[in-house]
Amino acid sequence: MEALASEGFSYITGITKPQMEKLLREGHLQLGLFDNDLTEVRLGDVRYVCRQNPVRREETEAMRESKRTSVEEAVKRQNSYLAGHPKAVPEVALKKVRGKITRLKIGSWLSVELDGRWLKLVVDEKALEEEALLDGCYVLKTDLPESVADKETVNERYKSLSEVERAFRSCKTLLELRPIHVRTKESTRGHVFVVMLAYMIQQALERAWKALDLTVEEGLSHLKTLCVMRMELPEERRFASCPVRARRAGSCLMLSG
């Protein structure tokens, strides 16, 4: 961001959950700011746009519950195995379940311990409450002045980041940005420039063919079937034939004198 500022650019970025928690601890943000409607806090030249997305909150809660259910099922399987195999070592089963909890990244509020030969899950309700405190919440950080972009515009521009990510994917795959076979700096810049021009054409085709429910790949495939043949005969009579797939559009014959 410092490099952007030195070149005269501004930024819009989303901050991480630990960064949000730090701002809450320091009193710069309050939980009351997170609502369905956008709110804004200014710290010096930096603006923080806050919101809680109810759909994302429900998704996060469902994901957390799904992870908990998965661990509970793992505990049942291990307890069933221990019950059926008296010589089985409980510590091995304990290690397996702890590994699963670690992989699912829910160890801050869920743990497992041994009760004799049985595994038992332990839920830290306070830690779970703190974990769920910022479900669905997000904070956007920007140095754009409000005269240039209000909080609604900042939010919309950040959401359009998905279009930028799609553009990168398209450039790397469909338009074959990689592999780069050139070596010099100038050639590399030229290669990337041509790919970006190609992406602009792709966008234009997407807009033009949107009503036809046709992807760019499908449209280009159809265009490959088009061809033009020109024949010049004596007495200045010329024929131009442009056959399209005969079974679909037949062919056209133009005569000019």
Give the arrangement of secondary structure elements.
Elements: H1 2-6, E1 12-14, H2 17-25, E2 39-43, E3 46-52, H3 54-84, H4 90-104, E4 110-115, E5 118-123, H5 125-131, E6 137-142, H6 151-159, H7 161-172, H8 185-209, H9 216-223, E7 229-233, E8 237-241, H10 246-249, E9 253-256
Antiparallel strand pairs: 1-6, 2-3, 3-6, 4-5, 7-8, 8-9
Strand order of the largest sheet: 1-6-3-2
- Count of distinct structural domains: 4
Count of individual beta strands: 9
The backbone outline, from C-alpha atoms, is extended
Task: Please bin the fraction of helical residues.
Answer: 40-55%
Largest sheet: 4 strands, antiparallel
* Helix/strand order, N-terminal first: HEHEEHHEEHEHHHHEEHE
Q: What average pLDDT do the residues reach? A: 85
Report the end-to-end length measured between terminal Cα atoms: 66 Å
Which structural category do the helix and sheet elements fall into?
Answer: alpha+beta
Strand residue percentage: 15-25%
Whole-angstrom Rg: 30 Å
In the predicted model, the low-confidence regions spanning at least 5 consecutive residues are 244-257
